[in-house]
Write a structure and sequence with these properties.
alpha/beta, single chain, four-stranded parallel β-sheet, about 180 residues, about 40% helix, three-stranded parallel β-sheet
Length: about 180
Amino acid sequence: EENRHVVGIGIEPTGEISTVNIDNVGIMKQLCNKIIQNGKKSFVYFAGYKDSYVSKQRLEGMTYALYENNIPFEDKNVVYADYSEEEAYKKALAMNIDADVIVCANDDMAIGVIRALKEKGIDVPKDVSVTGADNIKIGEYFSPSLTTIDNMNAALGVCAFDELFRLIKGSKSDDVVIN
C-alpha cells in the first residue's frame, strides 16, 4: 500500500513479493546422489520447522534422490529440530541411530547431531555420515569438517539487489532461483 519495494531472500515464493532462493531441491538431490554413490542406503532427515519452506525443499531434494535410487524412506525418519543445534543434539542423543546418513536442513543442526553421535561413541563419518546445509564458517573448524551445501549468500545478495533495482525502475516482480 505504501509502494515500497521488497525482495525476500530464502523465503517461500507467494506472488506477493519478489523472492530470491537457491535451488534447494536440486542441490540437496545432487548431494544425496553423491552420498548414495558412496554406498549409503539408510537416511534420516533433521528438518527445521514443520512449515519451513527451505526445510521442505531440502527434504524434497533428498527424497527425489532416494526415490531415483530405489531407496525407501519413511516419514518416521524425519526429525523436527527447529534449526537448533541444541534441539538436534537432544533429539539425536535420545534416538536409536540405525541410519548410514543423517541429512540436516542446516549446519547448526548437523553440529548438534555430530556432538550427540560422538557422545554416544558413534564414529562420524565412519559409522554414520552427517551433512548440513548453509556452509557456515564454523563448519571449517569443526572436527570432522562439516559436509555441507553452500547457501551462496553473496550470489543471493547480488540477485536480491538486482531484483530490487529492477522493481525500483518499474519492472515486473520475479521470483529468482540460482544454481
